Amino acid sequence: MRTSRSSVRSRLTALFAGAATLGALLAAGTATAHAAGPPLRDLAEAKGKVMGTAVTGSKLTGTYGEIAGREFNWLTPGNAMKWGSVEPARGSFNWAEADQIVDFAEAHGQEVRGHTLVWHSQNPGWLDNGNWTPAELGRLMDDHIALEVGRYKGRVAAWDVVNEPFNEDGTYRQTLWYNGLGTDYIARALTAARAADPAAELYINDYNVEGVNAKSTALYNLVKSLKERGVPIDGVGLQAHLIVGQYPSTMQQNIQRFADLGIDVAITELDIRMQLPATQAKLTQQAADYKAVMNACLAVSRCTGVTVWGFTDSDSWIPGTFPGQGAATPYDENYNPKPAYHAIAQALGGGTGQPTEGCTATYSVGSQWNTGLTGQVRIACAGASLSSWKADWTFGAGQRITQAWNATCTQSGTTVSCTNAAWNGSVPDGGSVTFGFNAWWNGSNPVPTVTLG
Ligand code: G2I
Question: Which of 89, 276, 394, 405 would you label with 252, given CA atoms 20 to 30 Å apart?
Fold first, then answer.
């Protein structure tokens, strides 16, 4: 890292914010609890890496917000900071979603990756359709960068200053910027961003540059020349929009060569798509591919970490862009962690030796009244199976189990321990079992995290 700034803000803020979301969870009546294991952000932090996700501001409530806050320590606005989002009409600005995401990140002890300042796509019509002289275009770009980076000065840790400058063969993409300003638009944009927030890390971000190939070599040569010229550049973003079974075998080598230039590398938009429907075999292969990406980053100290491009299949760009494909993220559409989630956790040092790896327990409140509730725990396995199980949790607010079915539950103090009944100990790969219970509560009824053993 260029500066010594801590990549993660106070955990206290995060814990406080986590407590505040419990009410929202209860209102929804259900919450996803994971099999044993700390959140990805904690595992990543212990490894000195960041674990990020792209987010949509309007969705940052309920279960989506709870997972975004709990599992990740970096957020990238998926669309909210793009030029077309922030200045749809010339001189008319809309910062609402971008502000909301930055506020959410600060409340949850997270850093923000600003995305993106200079791109050929998702620009406002007035910009794309203008007939600009080079001087006008350069001024527009400078002013945009000064305004947006300046607005979030000290609050956005890293910027994707220039996005997707290359064609697949390593030539420069013919864009508004390239056509008007030549290759120098890149150095100019980086210089303007540095002036607007000297503490922010400045990146060039592109796709299909994960392995060693013509495009990544063009990016490498660009960074090398920028460094030689003294242009401010702190890192490259490898987007990593991958396809199941096609992990680029030279990824670690490629990350290393960029690191050897004296810059950081971030995996900025990881998703791994497949032809639908998802099968166990594809999800298992996807988990292996996610793990391979994590391992490539973990192996290079200047790889700062990994951001997934949406954490749930319900908030992914893939189905809209590649009809018939999807299931590209670590959580399914109902916020259940997929084998890919567990593979990420395992790569980050979690879950080792857990017989339940690949199995999850989901606690949900079916109904609740006065001082009573009926709840259910669903144990589901994907990429793993169980022949017996034990599901434990701590009731945080004095709740007490009064009755259970399809499991034997005991409670000692605040600790509840449930073991399988004779008929439902076996959970096959791809299958699930549920058990139910009644409990007493009073005052508050927070949702516990279930540990599988
Ligand atoms: O295309 C995937 C990513 C490639 N790298 C740069 C990223 O910025 C890019 O993200 C995607 C967003 O995830 C999509 O959400 O960029 C797309 C545009 O190229 C975004 O799609 C757009 C849709 O095309 C619009 O119809 C929609 O209004 O998202 C907009 C907001 O939902």
Answer: 276
- Running DSSP on this structure, what letter comes out for residue 448? P
Measured in angstroms, how far is the CA atom of residue 122 from the centroid of ligand 1?
8
Q: Which parts of the chain have pLDDT scores under 70?
A: 1-36, 352-356, 387-388
Rounded CA separation 177/251 (Å): 29
Q: How far is the CA of 82 from the centre of ligand 1 (A)?
A: 10
Instruction: Kindly state whether residues 107 and 192 are assigned to the same domain.
Output: yes
State residue 452's pLDDT score.
86
- CATH number, domain of 410, equals 2.60.40.290
Give the per-residue pLDDT at 279: 96
Rounded Cα distance, 175 and 183, in Å: 10
Nearest by Cα to 411 from 398, 424, 425: 398
Tell the residue nearest (CA) to atom 17 of ligand 1. Answer: 317
Catalytic, 87? Answer: no
CATH number where 22 lies: 3.20.20.80
Dihedrals φ, ψ of 51, to 5°?
-125, 110
- Provide the pLDDT for residue 238: 99
Would you state the pLDDT for residue 7?
Answer: 42
253-297: pLDDT as tens digits: 999 999 999 999 999 999 999 999 999 999 999 999 999 999 999
Tell me the torsion sign for CA atoms 147, 150, 156, 158. positive
Which is the closest atom of ligand 1 to the Cα of 56? Answer: 32
Q: Evaluate: CB of 317 within 6 angstroms of ligand 1.
A: yes
Per the domain annotation, does 352 fall within a domain? no
Q: What is the pTM of this model?
A: 0.77
Ligand 1 lined by 78 (C-beta under 6 Å): yes
Look at phi and psi of residue 57 and say left if phi exceeds 0, alpha if psi is from -120 to 50, else beta: alpha
Based on the residue annotation, tell me whether 269 is a catalytic residue of this protein. yes
Per-residue pLDDT, 359? 84
Total residue count of the chain as it appears in this document: 453
> Is residue 83 lining ligand 1, measured as CB closer than 6 Å?
no
Query: What torsion do the CA atoms of 93, 94, 99, 100 make, to the nearest 10 degrees?
Result: 170
Instruction: Among 241, 317, 322, 325, name the best residue to mutate to test ligand 1's pocket (greatest count of ligand atoms within 8 A of Cβ).
Output: 317
Q: Which of 444, 377, 389, 440 is nearest to 419 (CA)?
A: 389
Residue 56 near ligand 1, beta carbon < 6 Å: no
| Domains held by the chain: number | 2
